[in-house]
Amino acid sequence: MDLPQLGTNLLNRVPPRLLSAAERYLKSVPLLRNRLEKETDSMLAGLEGDLKPYRGQLPTFATLPTQGLSHEQVLGEMSQMKEKEEHRWKDGLVSGAVYHGDSEHIDFLNRVYALNSQSNPLHADLWPSATKFEAEVVAMTAHMLGATEANAGRPPEQHICGALSSGGTESIMLAMKTYRDWARETKGITRPEMVAPSTAHTAFDKAAHYFGIKMVRVPVGPDYRADVKATRKALNRNTIVIIGSAPSFPHGTIDPIEELSELARKRRIGFHTDACLGGFVLPWARKLGYPVPEFDFRLPGVTSMSADTHKFGYAAKGTSVVLYRGTALRSHQYFTATEWPGGIYFSPTFSGSRPGALIAAAWASLVSTGEEGYLDATRRILETADAIKRGIRAIPGLHVLGEPLFVIAFGSDIVDIYKVMERMSARGWSLNGLHKPAAVHICVTQRHTQPGVAERFLEDLRAAVEHVRANPGEKGTMAPVYGMAGTVPFRGILSDLLKKYMDLLYKV
Questions:
Q1: Domain hosting residue 343, numbered range
Q2: Which residues are 163's β-sheet partners?
Q3: Edge-first strand listing for the sheet containing 270-274
Q4: Which helix or strand (DSSP H or E) is residue 407 part of?
Q5: Among 113, 140, 255, 313, which is disulfide-ready with 280 (CB 3.0 to 4.6 Å)?
Q6: Strands (E), 120-204
């Protein structure tokens, strides 16, 4: 082990409180603070050109034009940007992001959007079509995720129900807010905690931050699935909900939902299955004979779920479904105001006005695809993923993490995997960098099932690994950022870098 790595390992053993104090001290010394700012500014300057490619090519608007542009000019400029941006995802060079991408399907959804562009479910009296579409999307998704079995013999108020949100993050945040309010009202818990594996989506941290819930992260096992024993130990009288992923975003593995949800059921607390990625894949994978463990409302301990219609449901961005076991639980998601001078007000989700056109597009995608369409798409995706997994395992120096179905994470003990990712970027690929451990993943979509895409991916990956092995001294652009993210013990410094990156996105 080299000295920098030894130093990092030692620092990682220092109590977080001492590290935080040391970080505050470092940032309070002007010389050190200026050095840090200079280093981060230099790093971000190297990225600015990639993030702002239209400077000098297209007009820039920091103020409103004196006279509005013609429709033809606006559409012309947008068409230029579209042509520059779409080839990578159309050719299947992107991990996730676009999950269907067929031109006929996109054109169909665009027509649906145009028909419903003015609708808003906030005004249900004006657009009852929007509430029809939303209710039916929720019902179809619930049925797919075990509602029929869960509802059997139960009164209507205990049936699986839900709502549409703007995406997986909002679905997760709505569910966590719901558990917070439910626990406060029914259990008197004022210092709520949630227990989640280290691999659970960071949207749960966001919910904890926004809603004053303590996040308790527990480790995963060597198979990258949640550790049931560690989860049990983390529970206490303030725990309001346990989290499990089906599958997890980083490694594509399915947590032991049955065991985790039983812990929750026995303690009479909530259990949320995050199926944002897998909700529209796993039910069909099971029907196709793949070994999919129980993860949905067929398990009595599962009390809520999230599933993204805008991922493998093939709807337009951004819609997602959040589901609950019973209307009593869902009622804690709602907001009502009865004393406002503007009248009685209520909304089921965070937004007041919502885009009815996106809800209509989600409905149209589900009913036009149908069970046969989802089965066929899932079969092609999983067959392609199997070919990619075999190919990765055949490349000397690479290994697949865990036993994933369609989100495939891979790492290396021989080469810097971030440099491999950067070489793949140079060949046109857009993959996801992971850390703890260092790895890269590809989320297989319908774009990758096109002829020759999987073969090209593996050919380029072999070439990238060979290049990095032959040129270990190359630094690259993004590789140092990912490397720092996995090793820097001072999390505030890394957080400051990310905030500066977001500032850069807003520069005109």
A1: 114-367
A2: 322
A3: 160-165, 320-325, 304-307, 270-274, 239-245, 193-197, 214-218
A4: strand 407-412
A5: 313
A6: 160-165, 193-197
Q: How many CB atoms lie within 10 A of CB 334?
A: 14
What confidence tens digit (pLDDT) does each residue in 7-45 have?
A: 344 344 546 566 566 666 666 767 766 776 777 777 777
> Do residues 27 and 36 touch, judged by C-beta distance below 8 A?
yes
For the chain, count helices (H), then strands (E): 18, 13
Q: Which of 107, 106, 101, 103 is nearest to 449 (CA)?
A: 101
How many folded domains does the chain comprise?
2
| Cβ neighbours, 10 Å, residue 170 | 22
Query: The pTM is what?
Result: 0.89
Q: Sign of dihedral through CA atoms 195, 201, 204, 206?
A: positive
Q: Could you tell me which of 394, 325, 344 has the C-alpha nearest to residue 158?
A: 325
For residues 301 and 179, membership in a common domain is answered with yes
The strand ranges marked E within 137-211 are 160-165, 193-197
Could you report the per-residue pLDDT of 167-216, keeping only the tens digit for each?
999 999 999 999 999 999 999 999 999 999 999 999 999 999 999 999 99
- CATH number for the domain harbouring residue 172: 3.40.640.10
Count of alpha carbons within 13 angstroms of residue 120, beta-carbon side: 8
Residue 248 counted as domain residue: yes
- Is there a domain that residue 399 lies in? no
CA distance 182 to 424: 47
Distance CA 248, CA 402 (A): 11
Output the CA angle 169-174-179, nearest 5 degrees. 130
In contact, 417 and 439? CB cutoff 8 Å:
yes
Q: Which residues pair with 58 in a beta bridge?
A: 55
Which pairing describes strands 239-245 and 193-197: parallel, antiparallel, or unpaired? Answer: parallel
The two tokens of residue 55 are: 């400077």
| Residue 459 forms part of a structural domain | no
**Do 247 and 277 meet the contact criterion of CB atoms below 8 Å apart?**
yes
Q: Determine the Cα–Cα distance for residues 309 and 321; give it in Å rounded to an integer.
A: 7
